[in-house]
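step 3/5: co-fold with magnesium ion
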Amino acid sequence: MVIIMAKVICITNQKGGVGKTTTSVNLAYFLAKDKNRVLLVDFDPQGNASSGLGLDKTALEASMTEVMLGAMALTDIIQQTSFKNFDVAPTTPQLANVEVEMAAMKNKFIVLKKALATVAEDYDYIIIDSPPSLSLLTVNGMIAADYLILPVQTEFYALEGVAQLLESMAMVKKAMNPQLKLLGVVATMYDKRTSLSVEVLAEVRKYFKDKVFQTTIPRNVRVAEAPSHGVPVGAYDKFSKGAKAYKEFAREVEERTRK
Ligand code: ATP
Ligand code: MG
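step 4/5: write tokens
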């Protein structure tokens, strides 16, 4: 019997509001739709991925918060979503406080990695949604991951902070996780009618070259509406431009992780 171990992808950018959560939820959804077993780990105390999937993050008693404190096993907090092959490890706002407690732990950098190892055989992909910071949580995500995906919003200051992020990635790679790879950079909220969007995308392509995914994610109101209905855009309006783009993007991710 061949045991397949999950490919772990951390979606990260310390810049806020660039589309990390939207990309995490929709990538997870379309990977699952394509018959992959997927776990989405909500690793941001804001809990936007959890609420975007219809969970009430203030009412949860079992979440990533307890896992990071060592009080619960990851398998005990995972919930099924209403979509086939798509599970979620939700979070609560208290995850922010956990970070302070973790600081004193001896194994503070590998808590997430160890937790994910317990379910690696149950999934094809594990997607981690990160907070907008280069915090201990984010470093845990990078250490646990095989790949990073960097969403970049095609707006002013798109590449602000990117050098610092790449430095952190290089440090993690050197010290803790030599096989960590940048899977790619995805341009989000792209509006081909504005010259700013077009210019910024050109700048991002110049900087990251073929690391930039072919698929760009358009600015699309259906994408922004879907979380308030507790579903990914593919389930909310599968014919929308946003849903089509995320479906394409998921295919590209499958392609790149096959190599
Ligand atoms: P944070 O850093 O706070 O975690 P984030 O990087 O996870 O933010 P999102 O929450 O995914 O970013 O997106 C920020 C906002 O932009 C949200 O309101 C989201 O609905 C909206 N948004 C994201 N992608 C799109 C899109 N393609 N079209 C329209 N709106 C979008
Ligand atoms: Mg987010």
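step 5/5: annotate
The radius of gyration is 17 Å.
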